[in-house]
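Morning!

This is the sequence you dropped in the shared folder:
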Amino acid sequence: MTAAASASAPPALAPVPALAILCLSLAAFGSGINMRLNDALLPQLATEFSVGLGQAAAVTSVFSIAYGIAQLFVGSLGERFGKFRLVAGACLGCALSAALCALAPDFGLLRLLRGLAGIMAAAVIPLSMAWIGDVVGYERRQPVLARFMIGQILGVSAGVWMGGFAADHLDWRAPYFVLAALFAAVGVALFLLQRRLPAHARATRVEPGSPLQRIASDFRQVFAGRWARVILACVFLEGMLLYGPFAFIAAHLHVTFALSLAMAGTLLMLFGLGGLGFALASRRLVAGLGEVGLARQGGAVAAASLLLLAYAPAWGWVVPACLGAGVGFYMLHNTLQVNATQMVPERRGPAVSAFAACFFLGQAAGVSLSGWLSARIGTAHVIALGALGLLLVAWAFGTWRASRDRSAAPAT
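The structure's back. Tokens below.
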């Protein structure tokens, strides 16, 4: 069937199975693990392969670069073959790449395979978000997206913890085998569920021209809008300023407070729990603060928490710092996400793919820059610089969002 995905699902259309959102959230859970699995493993990888900490961080930055570049293709492929179906296939690809990473005999091949993992993972979260945008109206979308993102939030926490636990008690390869099994199970479940979706939830779009021409046309339309460019610039900076330093927080806690890597990973799980708290309270927070308030106050909470984490006098202060950083970051990021699903409704797949590309290319730039700076000014100052930059981005986005709301308001 060929049809253009609508901006929201009309009430007359058949509802999608509730299990669909749950399975997509489980796919996002695996993707979250995939993204952050190596953070707490970096010291062990550096020791095992006789490389520096900054060089070991290439397993994170290569993943992010490959993930970001692959976004040039996944949005248009999702429109052509069906977003839900492509997410299912991507999960099976993630299972294969994770198994191959577990079997990598040397650092060079591991780094290459992490690039493959980034390509395979590229479709999971962006196309899930775009599919939700297709079938859920804008007025209900932010809470639904927040519930969907519970999977990724918990996956980020689980990934850091699994890496730390494996570093102290197992081999670094063990969590990759677990990840491969998880993705394989979710991929099969999604393929089975895809057959039960109503027609509008399986909609595809075919246009004339070569694939490269269609991709170029899609992205020209996405980047043509000023508001889209603002959102994409903000999410690039958000990824750079938060997740660049984030890759070194476990090492920072390990060195500063002599904590085991398992303990450091456990503390970083609180970042995800803070995000989970936001997701569970999202409906009330959206109603009470609005998008402008969520962005500004989220940035302020995240920045204050990261500054506390950077200069904590004792490790006990890390507990509220990680919780607060998670709450604040997801207040800001979820607001950017919901705007991304609506910035070009007629090209939602490519639009959300561009959003993900900017986020992960920002992370890759941030990890490389943070690794370079950490060797010169120390991890504490790197985390603090990221916090201050994130605050500026959040307040700037809030100002632009408020201006856009005022211009759209009817004259009285």
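Headline: The radius of gyration is 20 Å.

More detail when I'm at my desk.
O.
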